[in-house]
Design goal:
Helices cover about 0% and strands about 50% of the residues. The chain is mostly beta strands.
Length: about 120
């Protein structure tokens, strides 16, 4: 069973920054490709970024240059550093294991189980 705990969300003003953490338990995170995705009320889930088990990194076009995904194998955690946040970035952010799939400049949001997520709200 794969288990994740997402944390680090909060309320920030436009232009602000947050660092999200995806901590894995019960497995070695390094062996898996990990995707960050988000979902806002009334909207479908949207892939944000993915880091593959071989170290390849992908971003959805709308966050490219603003977000950075990284992996700390010692801490068994994947991070998402989010800078220059926009109101459109608001949503609940989740992480999940699955192959990185990119279509038309968008990271595909994985299906299946995920953690409780962490709320990110960007508002003045």
């Amino acid at each position: 069973q794969l288990q994740f705990v997402e944390s680090g969300g909060g309320l920030v003003q436009p232009g602000g920054s947050l660092r999200l953490s995806c901590a894995a338990s019960g497995f070695t995170l390094e062996r898996y490709s990990i995707t960050w995705f988000r979902q806002a009320p009334g909207k479908e889930r949207e892939g944000v970024s993915c880091i593959s088990n071989s170290g390849n990194i992908f971003y959805t076009d709308s966050v490219k240059g603003r977000f950075r995904i990284s992996r700390d194998n010692v801490e068994n955690t994947v991070y998402l550093q989010m800078n220059t946040l926009k109101p459109e970035d608001t949503g609940v952010y989740y992480c999940a294991a699955g192959a990185c799939t990119i279509v038309g400049g968008t990271v595909s949001a994985p299906f299946g189980s995920w953690g409780q997520g962490t709320q990110v709200t960007v508002s003045s």
